Amino acid sequence: LVGYTKTQFALNTGAEIPAIGFGTWQDKEAQEDAVAEALRLGYRHIDTARIYGTEPGVAKAVNKSGIPRSDIFITTKLWNNSHHPDDVEKACDASLKDLQTDYLDLYLMHWPSPFARGDKMMPKKDDKIIPGDSDYVDTYKAMEKLVASGKCRAIGVSNFSKAELERLLKETSIVPAVHQFEMHPYLSQPDFAAFHKSKGIHITQYSPFGNQNEIYDKGKNMGKLIDDPALTDIGRKYGKSGAQVALAWGITNGHSAVIPKSKTPARIKANFEGDFKLDAEDVKKVDALDKKMRFNDPSETFRWNFYADLDGKN
Ligand code: NDP
């Protein structure tokens, strides 16, 4: 991207994705200002999703920034209630409208699990989710049409297991450009990462700070990943924090466009400075921190056995 001087990774479409993206999940009201600040500091990769409700805020921040649309990489995600092949284009159109743009750089299927069709995105508290009967392969085939029509420059998936990804590769024509899933030094999944590399699928890590996010119950009673003494020790060598080392670890492994969201300006700036490379010996030290600990697994709520064949299955 023009004007973006930090690391970018090539996707299998030929497009480039900036290594550090800005996530917009949670704190919906704070996101417009946070995205504006991120753009001002040089971020050019914004990650939103239909379910986050942050697409309109992202659009406002992008418009106000004066940065040309073509210089910003925008990802959004198809929500589970729109998996029916007849609903996919409508859902994409709604996202395009809220984002005030006529194309997406990347459209991801947020989860492989369908919910019942309809306007209800999430059941009310205590209501059970009603699973839908769409097959993610058919959903993905409907997404492929959005590439053909030019509405999406690239498509991909999120939160898939290896078996689900293998089936998708076998039964569809477009190799996903990106797979976005939870990955951090406590859940490093080296074999799964190698599998992506062999298929030309770029990995975007989410929750790169592991159990930093207050919403994750699992991991509440242990120390924060970003305060892990191994990370802070390595950081001393480079004049960086533990959080920045966690980001650099992903970038050095080359399989990540990591997404540290924050509504705190100082952290937004610091996270952007996590774009640097670690020496091989330090990558090894971070690899050794793996605890196979996954913090985000909504299998019970979504009524789907996520990550069944992967490390860190809860
Ligand atoms: P993170 O690991 O990025 O943690 C974010 C939390 O860390 C926030 O509470 C933020 O708080 C805090 N934080 C950010 N920077 C720092 C820092 N330098 N030092 C200390 N604390 C910091 O995880 P998330 O789980 O929020 O994931 C990030 C993004 O990934 C989301 O916004 C979303 O875009 C994407 N995502 C995608 C998912 C998917 O299913 N595809 C699932 C989960 C996330 P504060 O704002 O107060 O600074």
Structural write-up:
With 314 residues, the protein is of the alpha/beta class. It has one domain: NADP-dependent oxidoreductase domain (TIM Barrel). The chain has helices at 31-41, 55-65, 85-99, 136-148, 162-171, 190-199, 229-238, 242-252, 265-272, 280-287, 299-302; strands at residues 8-10, 16-18, 22-23, 45-47, 73-78, 106-109, 155-158, 178-182, 202-206. The strands form 2 sheets. A 7-stranded parallel sheet has the order 3-4-5-6-7-8-9, with helices on one face. A two-stranded antiparallel ribbon has the order 1-2. It binds NADPH dihydro-nicotinamide-adenine-dinucleotide phosphate. The site of NADPH dihydro-nicotinamide-adenine-dinucleotide phosphate has 26 residues, from helix 9. NADPH dihydro-nicotinamide-adenine-dinucleotide phosphate binds next to helix 9.
Task: Give the topology, please.
Layout: E1 8-10, E2 16-18, E3 22-23, H1 31-41, E4 45-47, H2 55-65, E5 73-78, H3 85-99, E6 106-109, H4 136-148, E7 155-158, H5 162-171, E8 178-182, H6 190-199, E9 202-206, H7 229-238, H8 242-252, H9 265-272, H10 280-287, H11 299-302
Parallel strand pairs: 3-4, 4-5, 5-6, 6-7, 7-8, 8-9
Antiparallel strand pairs: 1-2
Helix pairs in contact: 1-2, 1-9, 3-4, 7-8
